[in-house]
Amino acid sequence: MLILAAASAAAAAERAGNAPAPEPLRAWPSTPPPGCPFAQSDTLVGVGFTGRHAEYTGADTWYPSWASDGNLYSPWTDGNVNGLSSSSSGEKAATGNATILGEDPLKLVVTNQAVFASSPRPYEGRYPCGSLVYNGVWYYGTYCLHPNGQVPREGITYNWPWLGPFVGFRWSTDFGQTWTQTPCTPDKPLFGEQALHGEPVKIGAPHFVDFGKNLEHSPDGKAYLVAQGASEGANRRYAFNSWITADQAYLIRVTPGIRNMNDPRKYEFFAGNDAQGRPLWTSDFARIKPIAEWRDHMGCVTMTYNAPLKKFLMCVTDGGTTVSRYNTYLLESDGLTGPWKLVSHMTNFGEQAYFVNIPSKFIGPEGRGLWLCYAANFSSGWGGITFKSLPPGSRYGLCLQELRLLAPGDPAAAPEAPR
After folding, report:
1. 118 near 126, Cβ under 8 Å?
2. Residue 256 forms beta bridges with which residues?
3. Are 314 and 303 in contact (CB under 8 A)?
4. What's the pLDDT tens digit per position in 157-212?
5. What are the pLDDT digits (tens) for 13-43?
6. How many C-beta atoms surround the C-beta of residue 326 within 10 A?
7. Which domains are present in the chain?
């Protein structure tokens, strides 16, 4: 039995007077499949949705970065923002950027939209991933996708995209008005990984750990990136190494700066723990180790530091067949490298939510109230399969959904998905 969050003392006082009682939270049932390697958290035991949500634009791939000027800056692609379109596939692949103004997630303004073309060759697509604005410089990463043959599924043939290498970072010193292209290229990417022949990559689609405004909560002034990766082996699930499916999460770090971001020698990679359980870091890419793994059940991964709770929250999307319903789960840890515990496994969240992240700007002062940022249901209607908007407001675009992290001691109630 999951639990609903307790009303605050202020809300209780309001109910004792003339103010109407707030709507009850709806606790999404946590239904991890057999073999889940993450123990249930004993401090955060579920998620409850408030029913408040907002949707913006007609594009996906939103990863907001909270800059020192108080604004959010984000990549986007494959759709339109205020009439401007972008497509990340083909020779003229282009990725977008935009500024997000406002303090209230329900009343944001998405503006200053622009697109930037970058060839994906020898791959077929080039897409946004890690994005960070730090000390007035915007670092914008891209990765590649490549078809890996046509595979029949449920009577339909899909040419699904194989996860390619992370290319590198372009940068802007004027908040996205102009850009300097990365010196790295898809055939000579930052970390040297290749995927033209089906080779799995370890640093696929990395995302910056959200340490708050201008990296204010970074433990050492470094920028950290968490990335999805996959393993080789027989008896794999369909599309096991795609933009939305994976086996592991990896962690890397760098001191942010224009001279450093595209220099592989400036990076360190998590390499496991020593005998005392302390994290080891190495400059040798070959020694990289995952911070979390679950064969055939991981995918796009993002991480946010929740400063009031002093915890790291990791959002993972298990992308199924890449065009199916998706599962999203939240993990928590006291440390950057784990160990990780399960907060909630939300089966069919969205019903096809992806690129899920937690913008630190919208974490409440007590740490338990926050907003999920995601896009949803891009393949609804394909093959005659239509997805529901679950929770309401889930659609293709920039979606924001308010929730509350549930803790032990909150009053018990039957779990119920938001309607």
Report:
1. yes
2. none
3. yes
4. 445 578 999 999 999 999 999 999 999 999 999 999 998 887 889 998 999 999 99
5. 333 334 344 567 899 999 999 999 999 999 9
6. 29
7. 9-406 (2.115.10)
